[in-house]
Structure formats: structure tokens, C-alpha cells
Amino acid sequence: MILFALVRHTIRELLFRVTLLILTGISTLIIIVILLSISSAESADGVAITLFSQPIGLPVPIDQLEQAVHFVQRSLTGGLYTGIVLFGIIATAGLIPETMEKGLIDIYLSKPLARWQLVLGRILGAVTIIFANALYFVGFIWLIFGLKLGIWNLNFLLAPVLLTLVFLCLYTISVLLGILVRNAVVPILCVLFYQVVVAGFLENREYSLYLLSENVVYRTIVDGFYYALPQTRALQLSNEQFIVHQSLMWGPVAQSIVVSCVLLGACLWIFQRKDF
Amino acid sequence: MPVIEALELSKTYTSGFRKHRNVHAVSNLSVSIESGQIFSLLGPNGAGKTTFIKILLSIVHPSQGSASILGCAVPNVKTRERVGYLPENHKYPGYFTGEQVVRFFGELSKVPKKILDERIPDLLHMVGLTEWRSMKVKKYSKGMLQRVGLAQALINDPDILFLDEPTDGVDPVGRKEIREVLKGLKYQGKTIFLNSHLLSEVEMISDQVAILDRGKLVRVGTVEELTAQGSSFEIAVEGSLPSTFIDEASAHVLKMCVRGQTISLQSSTTADLNATLDLLRKHGVLITSMTRVRRSLEDSFIDLLKQGAQH
Hints:
The structure holds 2 protein chains of 2 kinds. The radius of gyration of chain A is 21 Å and the shape is globular. Chain A is 72% helix and 7% strand. Chain A is built from 11 helices and 3 strands, in the order ααβββααααααααα. By secondary structure, chain B is an alpha/beta fold. Chain B has 10 helices and 14 strands. In chain B, strands 6-7-8-3-9-10 form a 6-stranded mixed sheet, with helices on both faces. A 4-stranded antiparallel sheet of chain B has the order 2-1-4-5. In chain B, strands 12-13-11-14 form a 4-stranded antiparallel sheet, with helices on one face. In chain B, a hairpin with a 2-residue loop joins strand 12 (255-259) and strand 13 (262-266). The chains are: A mainly alpha, B alpha/beta. The interface between A and B is medium-sized, with 25 and 31 residues.
């Protein structure tokens, strides 16, 4: 009951955040645009997906329409990842530092709830609302393509789950930093830097970081970082490949779950030991 | 049986760049509070009053010593179901209304929904917020926030209530109302632990008072006990005092002042007081009345802190 109350309260709190409203607004706008404008046009060259009657890409043979839809869904998922990471982290990074504010944390901790419940309740609330956002977008897009073009891509429906996992990985980093520094700015900057720069370089280390040195120790350290830190980029790429019906890479999924659990454990341990 | 017990509690904070400087917020604090009392903790700013409450509520971890609440060693999550707390400078999420604040913290206190539905209107009425229950707390004045804070602290019908400056920012009428609420709770058998700077208020309602200075317990006792020490007497006499009286009495009194037919004196023991009265009788002076002039808690408090500073 306590955890449920905390999750509900967190969701409610997040619903008042402008950043999440913007994200939902953008998602809604894209859904409406696609709903009203997407169609298909047949010609002698094949069939093309159209947006406002304008073809997106070249016409493909009718039996390849499905792949073309998968490609569009894959592109939309890429955009959704960017949106969720950017807006989601900005909207939720303040939750823990705000909870730790003097005068509020005292009341929380005087109630019969364990400290881990407080942190977990906040994280679950944030993750729930991000999942709902992703599900809302992906669900509607899936329905629109299914109803208007007859392409029911079940693989696309995994996107909210994997996207939420990426968010969870990044959010546990944000929570850990939030507990340590008690403000929202440092976590936001660090997480965005990690996702945009660090995770990108690590994922493409063979074409970037490896080029800096051929030293075996150096490359082992780079690999160490790659396997120790959340593989959020790999997870995103894997998801995009899965949408176009390539096999899902389970390595990044398992690694991300393990790293999230370790980071969550660290958050709870530090929070448990803190004086307020 | 004590409901709150602390045994040699200490809390040391480290500060400075390399955390090598120690600040002793609470030092070897032992105190025992009986059920059904209003217990007040007094002390200047930084004396360790809030830290002590926070240790009892597991908001701060003690460096040394132990404490128990309702017979259970601290920390104990279950015990907190029977405790209410109103911290100093409390904050609530601004989008909550007053009623929602009380409901939310009631849910966190594991109060069933049905009981919350019944209790919330009563509590809001008790603290005088019925009219503003649907207003967002971000629009509340300081006094209104104190009232809603008191309501949230009482939502679980606690056996022990910790209040840190509960009347801070409340107008005189509101303060009186809060005092009446506290008296009513005491009458119901609740134990109230009060931190306050308003000594006159503490004096009015407290059963036990403890004075804390720089983390150390200076004195514990009833208001009478704390104010009795150093009390003075006014003795009204008939007839003229002999010229040698002041010199003779000086051996028995700490301070003495004669104004006409009234002698104001302060003696350290009852025996000294009686010796002074005997001296008056020996000189044939008729005593018509004797009144004990009680010191205020504020005077006693300041004296005790001064004594502490000298040591």
C-alpha cells in the first residue's frame, strides 16, 4: 500500500511537469499527423508509403511494403529514444533531490516506511510514467499502421519495454548522482553526457577509442568500461534491428538489467546510510 | 514505563574539506520520558534539539548510544506507525491541497482509507482549516502550513507526538488553539515531545522540561523544579528594622533589598530562609506576610545557560 501510494504520488507529481507534457504533446502531434496523413499509393513501379500524399522514399514492390513500414517504425523509435532520454531525464532527475529537501524528507522518514521503499517508490513512479508515454506513442503508431496499411508488426510492440529499460539504466545513474549531490542539474548533465558522448564512443569504440592507441591494456580498459557501464546505445540499436525483424541481441538487455540492479543497490545503500 | 528512552546518545558530524573537524551535535544524552506527559526540550540555536528528535525518528543515525521508543529499539519502522512528527520548516509538494497532504501522509502512515475518510474532516476542523482544505498548499500562509502540518502529524492517531516549533509563524489566537489541542491530546493519554523557543508557552503546558546546551543535557525537571531554584521571597513586616539586620542576614541570603516595610530576599536553602526569619523575630519585627516570587522559566533558562558557559 505504501509503495503504491508513493508510485501514485510520483506519477501525479510528474504529470505537473512541463517537460513531460511537452513530450506527450510532441508524441500526440506525431500520432495525429500520421493518423491523418499516412497512406499508401500504388503505381506501376510498386507501392509507396505516403505522408500528405507525398511518397516517403521510393516505391517498393507490394511484397516489400511491410519492410518499408518497419523502416518507418524503426525511424520513429529512434526519435522516441531521443525524446524519452532528453525529456524523461530532465523531468524526473529532480524527484530524488526534491524528496531529500529539508522539511519534506523529515516527514517521509518519520512515517512507517523503510528508506528503500521511498527511493524505490520514486523510481517506479518515474519508470511507470515513461513506460506509459512510450506505450502511448508506440501503441497508437502500431494501430495506425495496422489499420491503415494492414501491417501489424508485433516486434514494434517491444519498443516501449526496451526503451523503458534504457531509461531505467540512465535513471539509476541520475538517482545515484541525485542522492550524492542533492540537486537535479548535475545528474541531468552527467546522464545526457553519458548517453550522447560516452555511450556512443563506447559502442563504436572500434572506430573511435581504439584509434587512440593500439596498447592492449588501454583497449582492455576501454572494453572494461563498455561491459561495466549500461549499454544503452547497444540496447537502442538492438531494438531498432528487432523492429525490422532482425534477431534481438540479448547481451545488452541482460547487461543493462544487471547494471541497473547494481546501480539501484548502490542508490539504496547510500540512501540508507545518509543523515538528513 | 518510559515511552521514550535515550541512553548516552551522541551524534558527531564531521565537517571541513577533509572532514577532520568534528561537531558534537549531541553528547552523551540520556533521558527518559514517561507516558502521557508533555515533555519540552529547550536550548539555544544549535543546541542539538532537532538532532535529538531526528535520532529518535531514525532520520539521523547516532554515532554512539542507543534509544528506544515505545519499548522498541530505534530504528524500528513498525514503531513509527504510532508516532507523529511535525518538523521545523516543513515542506509539502505545492500541487497538493491541504486535504491531500493529510491524506497522502495518512496513507504513508498505513491508515486505512475508511478511517482516513472519517478522520481527515475532523482533523482539518480541529486545526481550523476546513474552509481552506481544497486550496493548494503553495498558497498557504506560514500559520496555515503549521496547522496542516499538525493535522498530518495527527492523522495516524499517534501515541507519541514530536513537535518541532509547532507555533512558529502562528498568530496568538492560533497559538492558544494549538496549546488547547496539545492539552486535549495529553488528556487522551498521548505523550508530546515539544521543541520550542517560546518559553512562556512551554511553561504553560509542560510537565517536564529538559535544557540542552551545546549537545549536553544541562537540567531536567518539572517547571516548578526549574524555576524554584533561585526563587526570591517578599516579606512584609511591621515595625522598624534594626540597623544591624542587613549585616547579620547577609550570612544567610544571596541577595537582599529593603524597601520601606518590604524585604526582598533570595536564599539558597530553606534553612537559610528560616534563619533569616528567626533573625527578624529575634529583633522583634512582626512578619505580616511572606510571598514567594517565582522566577520565570526564561530567567531560569538564561541563568542555566550562563552557568554552563562559565564552566
